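We modelled the chain as a single entity of 351 amino acids. Its sequence is:
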Amino acid sequence: MRLMKKKKCLSWVFFLLAIFSIGAFSSHRTMAESDSKIGVLIIGHGYFSQNPNFFSLVDEVKNRLPDYQVDSGLHMVMDMMTYKMWQTEDEAIRRLEAEGVDKIVVVPLYLNTDSSTVDVLKWSIGCEVEGEPSKANYLDETVECPGEYNEQNDFCNHMGAIHRRFRSFSDIQYIATNAIDYHPDISNVLLERAQEFSTDPSNEIVLLVGHGDGDDAIDQNYRDNVMARFANDVKGMGGFYDVQYGTIREDWCDKRVGAVQEIRDKINTAVSEGRTVIWVEVRIASWTNAHGQEWDTSDCTKLGTKDLLDAGKYIRANYLLYKPTSLAAWVVSMVNDAVTNNLYVNCLPSE
């Protein structure tokens, strides 16, 4: 009997040791997989001015992702006379390198992934542009670009701006998330912007207005697959009489006439029915210039809605980054999805 008890005790000891060993191995494997130091690079548009709300957003993301190194760069901040750039993604990557980061999640703070500017971001850090084969070397095929990195003049003129391709980095791996596109977190931000000016939702029409694109197919795809979904979400959550949408297409005179006419018609129709119109910008960091332009179809600089705004026919709500913390939830969602999917790639050398 004692012998049997001893055998049972030994069996339990071996069983527990086996469980402990498996657990220790699993824990060691998990630690090995998490040895990589992950950085987050939020890239904003920038251009000539710097919106302090962008940096407030970055600070909020840092607070929400304390285990990651979070940094930022502005893609289009430059002196057009000297071609000198500052606060660039290049500088941010150098800082992340210095912190020992070996994997970077690149988050483009742009509205539409299907845009040449997002392709340029990938090109700038030496990444191959994915998608259509014709865009494999996007800038080389559409504008004059040096084939090799040159510290002084590796610039590309594109969409009225200067872009640099930076020299090769160390063995950092990258994953670029999508731009904003459609995301339920953004629907919540748009609802928040509408509710800031809402007093009687059941009699209000919210008009979501985006930048738009010069390419008819891209613009229509954005309206159908992004704007329409935002409108559906905001209407369902906010209890508004209706939520409509449109794009301004403000960088293309020939397209803008019809686009603004559509917006004007929606506003005038709503007002004639006794509705209150709240114009919500589906834009990151600014209002459209249409609010300050008169309406004259013979003049490309006068394709706006100023007369309607001055007449009190609509209320101009704020853009997405007006309250920077609102966008932090979206950034965190994109980063967490990217890290979970673990789809890092080695970017191509710049040479």
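As a brief sanity check on the tokenised model: The chain has ten helices and 13 strands. The chain has a mean pLDDT of 76.
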